[in-house]
């Protein structure tokens, strides 16, 4: 089966609510780092979702917004069951024993200090009670503490949520921590479209996966990928979007959405700007700043954006200003 990149991106736009405000894409969760980027991902889709979402450290240990009903299944998918999967959470540190994951979870629930706790407070409460293999010396902190990735994973598995807002991680006392069935990988296949298995594993940040949904090969622009289900025929590509680099629309093979020179400017190791999307593809970068009551969007090549794309970007800027300013701010778009 051969399809074009435009077919894939039209599918994404259709199933991810970029035309009709469908809520299904929330099954993937949305990144909320820096704070408010999760709300931005929801707002640009005009989802109007007013049910409570929970903020937790989930995929790759990063803050995400999820529907409460999806979190038990998320725990099941992300819980490491092999040494290789645990190593993925520990980064450059030697992975401890798999049994140490359960110990971290038990201690977090038992030793949680108060109604809320900072990352440092919670780490200090459990680190002295863990074996040395789980608390190596940290040169930057100049002390021994629980491995960073293991700590982040432990909060999810222990049923610990984050306060809804704020750049500083502040945790709430543990709630339920049951595991449940999950369709997360199948949902990824549906909402992203054709992908390589490495794309999913990088997105999960949880090491090699043991099971996969039913997949079939597909060729996109001469490259072999995998597809679960059928592509939805989208009516059109999004005229203009202001997205953050880990928005669900931008998941999957990066070459599908951006030329290599553009990708280098948008996806950086640290401090990535936003992704300017015109007619379905990433064509540049953008950043924002505040000046009094005005939210200023500096957009690459803004003078060359015309027609429907220009109008759509202005509309997106107004929506995002509403996310940050709750109708207090106004938006202006200028050349970067």
UniProtKB/TrEMBL annotation:
The source's domain of life comes to: Bacteria
Q: Which GO terms describe its molecular function?
A: DNA binding
Keywords, sorted A to Z: DNA-binding
List the protein's name: Winged helix DNA-binding protein
**Species the sequence originates in:** Saccharothrix variisporea
